[in-house]
Write a structure and sequence with these properties.
80% of the residues lie in helices and 0% in strands. α2 packs antiparallel against α3, α2 packs parallel to α4 and α3 runs antiparallel to α4. It has one domain: Phosphate transport system protein phou homolog 2, domain 2 (Methane Monooxygenase Hydroxylase, Chain G, domain 1, Up-down Bundle), CATH 1.20.58.
Length: 200
């Protein structure tokens, strides 16, 4: 049984019992910070002169989201009837936190490696990142009603399509880098960033 169907079944049962609704507030707030961090990363790539300020903004969103994660886990331990399965709450909140960590890490790497210019592909990846986070936020916002299953699945399909686009852009960027970049240091920097991305 897929996660949407499990949610619908659980929602029918949970609707008959008292439950803690604060979880959905946490989910929505957490997803909102992810969208804001992604938008800040996109802005950073077009404004490298103020990289450090943008990096601090991304870090602020990551820290605030991290607090929400802790509050969610704490509430999970204190709540007898939860709106979703306990494991699914963990599976929902943790990957979103991981994405924020990766955005913060990307901004830190740009500062650490003293990046002075970015490629069109990097900017396109940032646009895709914003699109994915916006759709994830919209999907999370619909979790509270079991009537939204089809709409959630549609948003998930859009995220999957954007992920495919990102893979294509990433491969194109790497091929272009090794064919056209005369500075070996830039190749090493990008290879290190890519290695960390795929390991993460």
């Amino acid at each position: 049984m897929g996660p949407i169907r499990r949610f619908q079944r659980g929602a029918k049962l949970a609707s008959l019992l008292p439950r803690e609704g604060k979880f959905f507030d946490y989910f929505n707030e957490h997803a909102g910070h992810q969208v804001l961090a992604a938008a800040e990363l996109r802005t950073l790539l077009g404004d490298l002169a103020n990289l450090e300020a943008h990096q601090r903004n991304i870090e602020r969103h990551e820290k605030q989201a991290d607090q929400i994660t802790h509050q969610t886990i704490q509430l999970l331990h204190q709540t007898f009837i939860t709106p979703l399965d306990r494991d699914e709450i963990h599976q929902l909140i943790t990957p979103v936190e991981d994405v924020l960590d990766l955005m913060e890490h990307t901004a830190q790497c740009l500062f650490l490696y003293d990046v002075r210019a970015v490629t069109a592909e990097a900017q396109r990846l940032a646009e895709i990142c914003v699109g994915c986070t916006e759709r994830l936020r919209d999907a999370i916002g619909k979790l509270e009603s079991m009537d939204n299953g089809d709409a959630i699945l549609k948003l998930c399909a859009e995220i999957d399509r954007l992920e495919t686009d990102a893979d294509y852009v990433m491969r194109s960027a790497m091929a272009k880098l090794f064919r056209e970049e005369p500075d070996a240091k830039e190749i090493i920097k990008d290879a290190r960033r890519s290695s960390r991305r795929w390991r993460g």
